[in-house]
Amino acid sequence: MIWEGVKKFQGKPFQVIGVNGPDLMFPGRYAKMVGGDKRFSFDEFIEKDFFPSYPGFEGPKASIVHANIMVTTIRTKLTQSLGHVTGDLCDETEKALHDVFGENPDWQECAFNKLSAPLVARLSTRVFLGPILAANQRWLEIAVSYTINMMITSRLLRQIPHALRPFVYRFVPGWRALRKDAIDGRKIISAEIERRRSIWEENKKLGISTAKTADSLGWFQEVAGEQQFDQAGCQLSLTFAAIHTTGQMLSKALFRLAENVEWQKEVREEMVRVLRTDGWQKTSLYKMKLLDSFLKEVHRFDPGSTTSMHRVTKESVALPDGTVVPKGAQIKVLQDLHMDPVVYSNPEVFDPARYLKMRSQPGQENNWQWITVTEHSLGFGYGKHACPGRFFASNEVKIALCWMLIKYDWELAEPLKPKWWLGSEMIPDAAAKLRYRRREEEIDLSTL
Ligand code: HEM
Q: What's the rounded mean pLDDT across residues 360-379?
């Protein structure tokens, strides 16, 4: 229906009745306008879609109430620490791959879509909260299930009339599990804060200074300063933003590489070439330009949704063509320009080296990196709310893939089923199977 609208209305906005009422679909050429105009509100979108005033929804609540703390922490503290967290990401990836895929040189099968979010939860928790919580099975479970339970509960709640919601939300399937995740998550985070505080107090008594922990617990606190804030809510919000988004990306990339063993070989060769000469230096991932191009192409070709930049209008807005969008309208910006033949030659073809070629044109080096957001690449949104975690996500996915490709061979166990859509969202096939086997690696990744 959405693609019919794109064809029929030729670059003009149109309306589709979606799972949450009417959605105004704005073609990609409106991304700049929507992304730079505060009247298109991100907070009101969260408010409308994710019920921040109900118990259990402390994650979305924190992403509104503590938006500033969260975004500043990710933009400054996390992104600026990327060079320092490579060692931790490598260490955790090595252990996780050993635990999950083992060392068997014979072919085995796995349903990777079910494994990717837990894998990303483990790697991300190592960076966000340190090694102790990265080994805490209940926290790792919450980091995955909190988002799933929230999506289930929210989708159902949206279908219940506003006036009834305060009375029935407790009975909506998924809500109990969501609330339990939030309660257990809060206990785990409080216990970790308490553990750190007691070490600090012990050290103080002994006259020893305690080294600052460089992770999100400390960063949120530093950014908040004297301001009171909900540390556990921010952690839940971080899992909501970071785990499934990155997990799906890793899955989609691995399925594409498993589908085409030639690309797998080429991407692996680049990894080995760069790592053999440079090791895990700050610049190594930047030098893997085919890998970057391949990931951006996966994001263009296999988006998680046909839309990006979901907003709700805070007041009525007159568009340049005179159309008036009323207050309270749900806006979604289409990723239609991902298929724009003016910018992308043969857009219907998946070309892993597409962006590598585009970057090699004069003056284009920085315009087509995976993390670069433009109206032609909306996978990370655009404008004021463009994903602040994309620099971390990019490094995390690349590091995970380096280990996964250099240590293992991958291929499809069965042909992929056609993509399955729920509204504008692409839902991955959880049962899709990959085959993998341990290979003899060209370089020892742990001693680089
Ligand atoms: C491949 C992985 C990821 C994808 C595809 C992704 C995608 C997105 C998108 C589409 C948006 C909305 C942008 C807009 O509406 O303009 C967004 C926002 C956001 N993302 Fe990501 N994201 C990813 C990973 C992460 C990670 C790892 C983090 C945290 C470390 C993160 C934190 C956030 C936050 C906090 C926001 C809200 C920004 C705001 O309120 O201004 N994301 N992301």
A: 96
- Helix 137-158 vs helix 231-259: crossing angle, to nearest 10: 90
Ligand 1 center from residue 385 Cα (angstroms): 8
Domain ranges of the chain: 2-447
208 φ/ψ angles, rounded to the nearest 5 degrees: -100, 140
CB of 27 sitting under 6 A from ligand 1: no
Q: Which fold has domain 2-447?
A: Cytochrome p450 (1.10.630)
Of 241, 255, 243, the closest CA to residue 404 belongs to 255
CA max distance for the chain? 73
Amino acid at 157: L
Which three-class secondary structure state does DSSP give residue 236? helix
d(CA 91, CA 95): 6
279 beta partners: none
419-446: per-residue pLDDT in tens?
A: 888 888 888 899 999 999 999 999 999 9
In angstroms, rounded to a whole number, what is the distance separating the alpha carbons of residues 425 and 385? Answer: 20
Q: Which atom of ligand 1 is nearest to the CA of 310?
A: 15
- Say if ligand 1 is within 6 A of residue 41 CB: no
SS3 at position 108: strand
Average pLDDT of the residues in 217-242: 97
With beta carbons less than 8 A apart as the criterion, state whether 26 and 333 touch: yes
Residues comprising the binding site for heme? 387
